[in-house]
Amino acid sequence: MPLDLLLIMVVGGVSLVALILHLTGRSAQTVLSAEDARTAWHRHFPDDEVHQVMVSEDRHAALVQTSVATGLLWSFGADTVARHLIDFDVMETDHGLRVEFHDFGTPGVSLALEPRERERWQQLMTSP
Amino acid sequence: MSDAISYPDVTQYAVPFFIAAILAEFLWIAIKGRGGRYETRDALTSLIMGAGSVASGILLGFIAWGFFMLLWRITPLDMGTSVWAIVTCFVLDDLRYYWVHRFGHRVRWVWASHVNHHSSQHYNLTTALRQTWTGTFTFMMVVRAPLVLMGFHPALVLFVGGINLVYQFWIHTEAIGKMPRWFEAVMNTPSHHRAHHGRNARYLDCNYAGVFIIWDKMFGTFVPEQEGDRVDYGLVHNIGTFNPLRVAFHEWVGIFRDMTQPGLSWKQRLLYAVAPPGYSHDGSRDTSEGIKAKHLARNPQDRGTPGFDAS
Questions:
Q1: How much is the average pLDDT of A60-85?
Q2: Residue of B238, B260, B295 to mutate when probing chain A, most A C-beta within 10 A
Q3: Is B285's Cβ below 8 Å from some Cβ in A?
Q4: Under 8 Å between Cβ of B291 and B236
């Protein structure tokens, strides 16, 4: 197959699929309740005992106190990703916090938090 | 012995069909309200990975081709291009696929290339196209060497390999439940392959088949999809990025970081590259065996059920 034709089909096809998905509402981030966050944490870390869950006001992230360490769970498209807060950096941003994980496959996440919420989350993330 | 045999690149010719089938599956899900899920960035990442895989084949394909042509000049055998030669080559190549795929899950060096195919938490036709960019660097081309040495022309070997990949496209769907019993018994199907994509302890390291599920039944790796244990798609430790570059290379970076840790013996460094995924020198991580054992400790009633040892 001529390369230019292949290129047109690939670029056109990929763009068409992405556009249709976006226009039909498939770009929405998942919304979490405390129970959702607890279930999602057990899905990612079935051995952990979950002590407490704090969901962000925008409901796209949760701080999870577990038997291993404090953890962060966040919306990842229609799903979630979770990490224990063990090897990480946290910094303030205009809209909340940025958490960096030193992990090429999960570089970090930007959390949208209200100012008071940001202070509380930062404290919980960094307290031993 | 002829060098001038050529076959079409079926994966490239299948591109329009892939796009039409993805749109059809999405419409089906949207209309019926069941049969799978789609998410924009996840699907976009999968499609870009597919395009990148084709590009990688165009750019790096000459390495495998050169290796196969070298073998072709050495071998005294020529199986020809009859229908029987093509069918035999297809079946033997599917056996080759089974073992490459099994290595892809049991040897971290090969897993580094294959992991991206499992990195989506979704399971739809776009997931089928979430293919590797780095397959050449696994050196798994050597597993194809016996086919060429047996007298199958390299063009034929690559042709049947392409058909194998195109076959596997349609099985990446939740829109199809189970096929007729005879078909499920012999062929790889959406149900069998859903289990393969599961991150549930039960489904780790099962159903490596490409086209014929009989290989898994022969070599003891078959686990049927269980109604009572819905497949949870993705990786044991799901990645948090839609960036195709990170998806393509994250496990290679992980191998490099692990191998270059200070204070390791040479054996430990080597094992970080070739041991099963989840190996760690200090036991801080779990391989699939460890994950299954922990699951059985929490759920002893599952002992002896499909995917779990009886003892």
A1: 97
A2: B238
A3: no
A4: yes
* One-letter identity of residue A33: S
pLDDT at A92 over 60: yes
Distance CA B126, CA B47 (A): 6
Q: Rounded to whole angstroms, how far apart are CA atoms B34 and B28?
A: 8
Integer Cα distance of A83 and B239 in angstroms: 10
Q: Tokens 């990612």 correspond to what residue?
A: A44
DSSP string, B150-168: TT--HHHHHHHHHHHHHHH
Q: Which of B204, B235, B240, B241 is nearest to B221 (CA)?
A: B204
Of B265, B263, B294, the C-alpha closest to B278 is B294
Neighbours of A3 (CB within 10 A): 10
Task: Inform me whether the pLDDT recorded for B1 exceeds 70.
Answer: no
Residue B117 CB partners (closer than 8 Å, separation 6+): B127, B130, B131, B132
Among B82, B86, B136, residue whose Cα is nearest residue B112: B136
List helix spans (H) across B187-232: 190-196, 214-219
What ipTM was predicted for this assembly?
A: 0.95
Distance of residue B208 Cα from the nearest chain A Cα, in angstroms: 24
